[in-house]
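Memo to structure team: turn this sequence into structure tokens by end of day. - J.P.
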Amino acid sequence: MYYLDFIESNIARPQPWYHSEMGVPVTLSSGTHQRAAFWLLRLSGRKEMDTMNQHLLNRRQFSARCAALGFALPAASAMLAIQASAQVPGTGEAPKPVVRTVKFPDGTTVPAIGQGSWRLGQGRHALSVEKEALRTGIALGMTVIDTAESYGEGRSEQFIGSTIADQRDRVFLVTKVSPENTAGEAIARACRASLGRLRTDRIDLYLLHAPVPSSRLAGVVAKFEELRAAGKIRSWGVSNFSVAQMEELFRVPDGHRCATNQVSYSLRNRNIERDVLPWCQQHNMPVMAYSPLGGSSGPLVRDPTLAGVGAKFGYSAATVALDWVIRSGNVIAIPESGSPAHVKENALALSVLRS
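Reply from structure team:
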């Protein structure tokens, strides 16, 4: 899916892009179509082609990526046809939709796009509309639901608990404990409170919402492990950790059991590409991306370039932006939306057509 690597050249300011083979930064801008075409052509006959064949885009997606770069659509279609025939020679079978998934270290597999809830259940929209949106997302396969005890002082957890009560087993439930609730038995108390608000007997993934002093990491991990052994949580992870903090975590007993690091990641905020993302990939740990549609960095749903590309081929700017975020297969995006219509747009990025 290397076509996606060039979309950001038309979004906001150019940023360094690291080529997988050369390992050097290459700054792209809207005027570098010829260089982009050069790198695309160089993929043929190299090991990257094997990876491309494993992550084929459908015709609409591939054409959209190439159109964003100014490539001719007939040439794009021809290249796609060559790849498809190499993948399934002579079958003539129609491509089948495949839901993109991500695997945690313990083998648990979840959809690559879930649903965030930072402002849900707090009066931003009518509760009935927000419930419909969350349920619509679950029905469309976005079953990873992310919340935190601090969101609306527990109101987000309460909202989610009431909304998923009749379909809890379909949901992979994620919530977070605040750093101030990690001393002594505070984590156990916080977990019980979250379980009550969520109306469930277990949390699938329990995250430390922000880093704590390194001197307290061992104690936090020990309490997480106690909760896991008791069946209150199935796994645990962290949020907003740097590489240095992840390395400190892995040095404490059982720190390697960390399932994920949830951080901000989008076309507008790509800081983790320098260090956190490759570190997690090296340790077979998926990243959870909050604010994948831009967040405070600027909402990508209104980006004119993404909107233009999406409109040509029947996608929204949100679909294109999410498609880019989850392109590596190691990132779970958790966009928030209180609108059923927007949830449907987000869900389009969850499925691709593969031969």
